[in-house]
Design goal:
The protein has about 500 residues and is of the alpha+beta class. Among the domains are: about 285-325, no CATH class; about 455-504, no CATH class. Helices cover about 40% and strands about 20% of the residues. The chain is built from 14 helices and 16 strands. A 6-stranded mixed β-sheet has the order 1-5-6-7-8-9, covered by helices on one side. A 3-stranded antiparallel β-sheet has the order 4-3-10. It has a 3-stranded mixed β-sheet with strand order 12-11-13, with no helix packed on it. The radius of gyration is 33 Å and the shape is flat. The termini are far apart.
Length: about 500
């Protein structure tokens, strides 16, 4: 690895600045937050620009463009310089994304609240796919952003949501402890038909409106650098800034960020193993105490590929000899080091090695949870920050629907993240049966995986009991005994007259 690359990597590993695309400012310096000045917008973009190098670096590791490919071996007799990359970064992120959002995030209404209109909007936006993409950004970059907006679909305004690359957006907050959003920025470089830069489209999202700017060149806004027809201002009805910021953890670090030095060490060790194997195959032939001649009797000198050398005669009876000169290495010791580094990678990231012997065979659901204990702890942290952002999302959608005259209330909504692991349904059903009479039925039914509404399931169970009783009475002949009866919430058959008297 060349020296310049080492310096850059060390600087990024010890990055001390803000890791997200949030920029905190004193709101008194902005003036009207619903019409921020050019200076305020330029300051926010310039402050965020210095963080892009870290985002690019993390994306490179996820995509496999890692430092091992820049390694140059100098001053070595070996001719080989193998570069082997084992992409632990992608494995760590993909495992976390699948574990966290493999099952759709479940959202249920708070007590006596109605969120059906909101849930219908979420279903129309295919929110499960969006959450998966958002979690991937969180895992790679340590932060994620989403934008709620209205788009025209066949002439009809439709609520939409999109994940925004943190390298192309800024969320400006105040500098208080609450970090309240003031306005958001989404900026995109524009190109002409020849692929040459042609300014930027800069869209500012305030609490009330959307302001679009188009620059002539660069991204700096000024009176002389605005294209004709801009700015363009439209009103939105989300009731707040529609750009939402998420964080992966308190430090806003990616899931593999702290393990990058271990990932580099593993790649270097594996590359060295292959390099040594190649050098072993390309060993030098050493001739001691004599020279070789060709068909014409001429001495054969060292060939241009340096695969053979002459050496003085050895001492003793076997002064003249021919040997292969090879590097020696202890494969067993190297394998111990390989396993040690690999174990450290999985320990540092809480992501288990699924090919490990601990995961062989068939395990019960509870046994699997113990094996994934570290991943569950990581999920607990992710869930807190995901839930906070999703509540903002629900509130913005509620504000829009309320403006359109639809009644809904997302306050107190229950947000559940169910980890995506193999489920033993037999054990779960047996546990629900054993809990009958000990734990409320509504609580027991909530143990079922997936998006289930316990209240709706209880109604269906009670209806099935009533239908079965009625069917049995009809089979026996005569008038059904259940015509004047009903089933209560606990599944007990009672007279309707009695029920009416109890209520009075």
């Amino acid at each position: 690895m060349d020296e310049i690359k080492k310096v850059v990597t060390i600087d990024l590993l010890n990055f001390k600045g803000e890791r997200s695309s949030n920029v905190a400012v004193d709101p008194t310096l902005i003036g009207d937050v619903n019409d921020p000045s050019y200076d305020a917008i330029n300051y926010a973009i310039n402050a965020q620009k210095v963080r892009i190098e870290r985002f690019n670096w993390l994306e490179d590791y996820y995509e496999g463009n890692q430092d091992i490919f820049k390694r140059q071996l100098t001053g070595s007799l070996g001719k080989a310089n193998e570069k082997v990359m084992i992409n632990h970064a992608k494995y760590i992120t993909d495992m976390n994304v699948g574990f966290t959002t493999g099952n759709p995030i479940a959202i249920a209404a708070g007590q006596s609240k109605n969120i059906k209109p909101i849930q219908e909007q979420l279903d129309d936006m295919d929110i499960s796919a969006h959450d998966t993409e958002l979690e991937k950004d969180l895992s790679v970059y340590g932060c994620g952003y989403e934008l709620l907006y209205i788009k025209q679909s066949n002439g009809t305004p439709t609520l939409s949501i999109q994940k925004i690359d943190p390298r192309g957006c800024v969320l400006v907050t105040d500098d208080t402890i609450d970090k309240n959003p003031l306005f958001g920025i989404h900026y995109v470089q524009k190109l002409d038909l020849l692929g040459n830069p042609s300014g930027y489209l800069i869209t500012v999202y305030t609490q009330k409106s959307i302001i679009a700017y188009r620059t002539k060149m660069g991204y700096e806004l000024s009176d002389t650098n605005i294209a004709d027809g801009y700015p363009q201002v439209t009103q939105h009805y989300f009731g707040d800034v529609p750009l939402i910021s998420y964080r992966n953890n308190e430090e806003k670090q990616g899931d593999f960020e702290q393990a990058i030095s271990l990932i580099d060490a593993y790649n270097e060790l594996q590359s060295d193993r292959i390099t040594d194997k190649r050098n072993f195959i390309d060993a030098l032939l050493v001739v001691y105490g004599f020279s070789l001649t060709d068909e014409k009797g001429n001495d054969i000198n060292v060939d241009k590929d340096h695969t053979m050398i002459y050496a003085p005669p050895k001492t003793g009876d076997n002064a003249a000899a021919v040997e292969w000169l090879t590097k020696s290495f202890d494969e067993s010791q190297i394998q111990v080091l390989v396993k040690s580094i690999k174990d450290d990678i999985h320990q540092m990231t809480y992501v288990p090695n699924m090919l490990d012997e601990n995961f062989s065979g068939v395990s019960s659901g509870e046994a699997m949870k113990y094996k994934l204990f570290g991943l569950y702890q990581l999920l607990a942290t992710k869930e807190r920050y995901l839930t906070k952002g999703i509540r903002q999302r629900l509130q913005l959608i509620q504000n829009l629907l309320t403006f359109k005259g639809q009644q809904c209330d997302a306050s107190g909504a229950i947000i559940s993240i169910n980890p995506n692991i193999p489920v033993n349904m037999t054990d779960i059903i047996n546990n629900i049966k054993n809990a009958d009479g000990v734990i409320p039925q509504k609580v027991a039914l909530s143990w079922l995986p997936g998006q289930n509404d316990p209240d709706e399931m209880i109604k269906e169970l009670n209806q099935e009991k009533q239908d079965n009783i009625k069917m049995q009475d009809e089979i026996l002949g005569g008038t059904s005994q259940t015509e004047g009866q009903t089933v209560d919430d606990n599944g007990n058959v009672i007279d309707k007259q009695q029920e009416s008297g109890d209520k009075s």
